[in-house]
Write a structure and sequence with these properties.
single chain, about 850 residues, alpha+beta, 9-stranded mixed β-sheet, 9-stranded parallel β-sheet, globular
Length: about 850
């Protein structure tokens, strides 16, 4: 049925378009400068399919930086809606045409307008020549040819449950935040109009279309047609081209524009447990105790809406979550180095004498009906609710006061913000006579106000029609401000369901309400990889699945995979069977324990990657082609992924699977667990019993690790170690970042340590040396170093000039470093 609707919408668009000559905009004036090209356009012939063309446009093409060009096309009067600068910064010209890596071509005055952007070597990246260009009031179209000499490899355009590589042959990708559950190929919770285009020659570029209205990216690639068409139902055209040319550079350039991710606290990388259905404090306490009893790591316990009194925000249930017991529970968690997070929804119950409602009413901070005076109401969990307008600065103080007064009594460690697309139980309003905005065009299958507010609802920024997509972005901003007010020098942990470009500056994300199926487990991989491209690295799916009942085998496989998610949390729905890591008997508990302990051992490596993401805009987990951009076979791989540049993870993703068909990229690779070498540049069948998840370390990498513990606070006191995987020439390199794990200003004030490690080979000996780039945090010791990839067994090993104890097990050499200080210079010499 859905496909039939899509086909009908496409047919109608063809019929409408065929009946008229499409608009032609002519360059009325143009000024070409070293930093920008400015000009005006005039509609000189034709018209759009819906007859509401904007006749006079102005444009600017700015060389924002050497590696990016920004194009803004809007109405001459600049009265149309555009995304505010406080969401994504406006034009900032810091580059010059003669220094840019990109060449922009625009016709002279009097000629038909088009834009062509190329690299300096002539490779065309974006070209509107001969393609549709429409600028109506509620229908904007900008088209480019796919300019690669092969079928394009496109990634991004979220949020959706989809394969990693998007199918360009004849597909529509709609962007409009809605709670569409776990439906594949539908617009879901987030608004991310960014894509990366990877070429077979190894180069990549990116495009970001900044527009908060409903969008459609319409792709056609066949022998008759070759184009990507961007359609919007409002706003302006504001797009940025990123030169790359390496895929990781494309992402870094994008994050430089939208804002690099906030640095997360160390404990947020530990394991998290939640369930909608922990319906009293006793059940919640029992989960924590059972993790400890079963020797399973756990950093954070979560409560879903069960904890609330009558499902109202900023309350704990008077009986089921008796307040004094909750306070003691939080105190006990903190004493043990653990943490507590609960859910908060944006909907405020309409109830006399309910303080959050009454205060918001007095302050006038809610989203209003079309009259601009009456708060619009809809229905969510507690019943009839109203919603703070987070684009109104007054709402930030309101929200902060509520959170801080609540946390004064219940010192939570983070906040989970959900239902913030918004997701409501009625379409528009719960009143049958409600009016709404009509549109001449909608992307196929989209109903704007499905489980949403009316589109004509009024916010401080604009209408809900225009500003809805970044509602959660602003809620995240307000929530971060509130937590920093309460804990001024602690990095906030905020996990949000909905997101917008730049959300990573303020909060993180989980992939929403997935299913307890192998398919859902598989598709969590492209989900987390894509969100790392979007600048939200702390991301993961509900381990074992949210909707439906899981089973022992699926949960074991998912825990193995989920132990490598940046954000690792087990969570499921009310009424579904328990799926905590200890519930499926001794064998599955042992498998889960092994997976989680391995995760904790790798946390120093993950934390270093999060530091790099924060300061450089890089990814924590990434597709294989990010590291091997000339390996064309890697472009479609979404059953494997890289953690940083060092680790290749190849999970089992099918029921009863015992063999994984893995792509092993070029180079030297070693089994992460035993050091056995395998050769790269081939596909390999890997035997995968239930106890096994395949992880390979890349030759040339040095991976920092640490002894595992039951939580990160306990682990902080334990020794670190290094895994040195030598490449074909006997070389390797890596980094370790250390700080106190929570201070907001650790990086800006230099209260951190950054150590660089380098291994090399000369004739008959290997040398490993450390260089302390910065020693602003002196805490931690090095217990041992393991080497894999030696040419032969060693005869002698020294550590800083003194003979050292060592052992050789199978293909691995382990050297005792005597718990030496990490900030002390290290030199290990291995003689063959």
């Amino acid at each position: 049925m859905q496909r039939d609707l899509f086909a009908l919408a496409i047919l109608l668009a063809i019929i409408i378009t065929a009946g008229c000559q499409l608009p032609v905009y002519t360059v009325k004036s143009i000024s070409r400068g070293q930093t920008a090209i400015n000009g005006n356009l005039e509609l000189t012939s034709g018209k759009g399919p819906y007859g509401a063309d904007v006749r006079n446009l102005k444009f600017v093409v700015a060389y924002e930086k050497d590696d990016r060009v920004r194009i803004v096309i809007g109405d001459s009067e600049e009265k149309r809606w555009r995304v505010p600068d406080y969401v994504i910064p406006g034009l900032k010209v810091q580059g010059r045409a003669d220094q840019s890596n990109l060449v922009v071509e625009i016709p002279d005055q009097g000629k038909q307008f088009n834009i062509k952007i190329s690299r300096r070597n002539g490779q065309v990246l974006f070209d509107t020549t001969g393609k549709d260009f429409v600028f109506e009031d509620q229908y904007l179209v900008l088209s480019t040819a796919f300019t690669s000499p092969h079928e394009p490899n496109i990634y991004g355009l979220g949020e959706r449950v989809n394969a990693l590589r998007l199918d360009p042959r004849d597909n529509h990708y709609t962007i409009w935040p809605q709670d569409n559950g776990n439906l594949e190929n539908f617009n879901l919770y987030g608004h991310h109009p960014f894509y990366l285009d990877q070429r077979n020659d190894g180069t990549a570029h990116g495009l970001f279309f900044l527009n908060s209205n409903a969008l459609e990216f319409n792709m056609k690639y066949n022998k008759n047609e070759n184009r990507l068409q961007i359609r919007a139902i409002g706003g302006i055209m504001d797009l940025t081209i990123f030169a790359g040319p390496h895929p990781q550079q494309v992402v870094q350039q994008y994050h430089d524009l939208i804002g690099r991710p906030a640095f997360v606290p160390y404990w947020s990388l530990g394991f998290h447990q939640c369930k909608w259905g922990y319906d009293n404090i006793n059940n919640t306490i029992a989960v924590v105790e059972n993790y400890k009893k079963n020797d399973l790591p756990l950093d954070t316990i979560w409560n879903d809406i069960d904890y609330m009194q009558d499902l109202k925000d900023f309350t704990f249930h008077n009986k089921n979550f008796e307040h004094e017991r909750v306070k003691k529970f939080i105190s006990d968690l903190h004493a043990n180095g653990q943490h507590y997070i609960v859910i908060v929804d944006p909907g405020i119950k309409v109830e006399k004498d309910y303080a959050p409602y009454e205060i918001g009413l007095q302050k006038g901070v809610y989203i209003f009906k079309e009259d601009g005076k009456t708060p619009i109401k809809n229905k969510v969990w507690p019943g009839i609710t109203v919603f703070p307008d987070f684009t109104n600065p007054k709402s930030h103080e309101y929200w902060s006061d509520l959170i801080n007064e609540w946390l004064d009594e219940f010192p939570l460690d983070g906040i989970w913000i959900d239902m913030n697309e918004l997701a409501t139980f009625c379409d528009g309003e719960c009143e049958s006579d409600a009016n709404d905005i009509s549109t001449p065009y909608l992307p196929p299958g989209l109903k704007l106000n499905k489980q949403q507010l009316n589109m004509n609802s009024v916010m401080n920024a604009s209408t809900w029609y225009n500003a809805h997509s970044f509602y959660a972005f602003m809620e995240g901003y307000a929530t971060r401000k509130a937590l920093l007010r309460k804990y001024p020098n602690k990095r906030p942990v905020i996990i949000s369901r909905s997101s917008f470009a730049g959300t990573g500056r303020y909060n993180s994300h989980w992939l929403g309400d997935n299913d307890a199926t192998y398919r859902s487990m598989h598709l969590s991989i492209p989900g987390m990889l894509t969100f790392n491209m979007f600048g939200i690295p702390l991301v993961g799916a509900d381990i074992c699945g949210f909707n439906g009942d899981t089973n022992a085998q699926l949960c074991a496989r998912w825990t193995q995979l989920g132990s490598f998610y940046p954000f690792s949390r087990n969570h499921n729905s009310i009424g579904k069977i328990p799926q905590e890591s200890y519930v499926f008997g001794p064998r599955i508990t042992d498998i889960n324990r092994s997976a989680l302990k391995n995760r904790y051992q790798l946390l120093p490596y993950y934390y270093t990657l999060f530091y790099k993401a924060h300061v450089e805009g890089s990814t924590v987990v990434r597709p294989l082609f990010f590291e091997f951009p000339t390996v064309v076979d890697s472009f479609v791989v979404d059953t494997q992924f890289m953690v940083g540049s060092a680790l290749l993870v190849s999970p089992a993703l099918e029921e009863n699977q015992t063999v994984v068909d893995a792509l092993i990229p070029p180079g030297r690779w070693f089994d992460y667990y035993n050091g056995t070498e395998i050769s790269g540049n081939r596909r390999l069948k890997l035997f995968t019993p239930l106890e096994k998840i395949h992880v390979h370390v890349r030759g040339g990498a040095i991976v920092p690790r640490q002894q595992d513990a039951l939580n990160t606070a306990q682990q902080k006191k334990l020794p670190h170690n290094l895994l040195v995987a030598l490449d074909e020439n006997g070389n390797a390199g890596g980094e370790l970042y250390l700080d106190d794990g929570e201070s907001v200003d650790a990086v800006s004030t230099g209260r951190y340590t950054l150590i660089k490690y380098k291994a090399s080979f000369d004739q008959s000996r290997y040398t490993l040396e450390s260089h302390v780039d910065r020693a602003g945090y002196d805490n931690g010791v090095l217990g041992y170093v393991s080497f894999v990839g030696l040419k032969s067994k060693p005869t002698k090993v020294t550590v800083n000039g003194s003979a050292a104890k060592f052992r050789v097990e199978e293909d691995k050499l382990t050297v005792d470093c005597g718990n030496s200080k990490l900030t002390k210079d290290l030199k290990i010499v291995v003689s063959l």
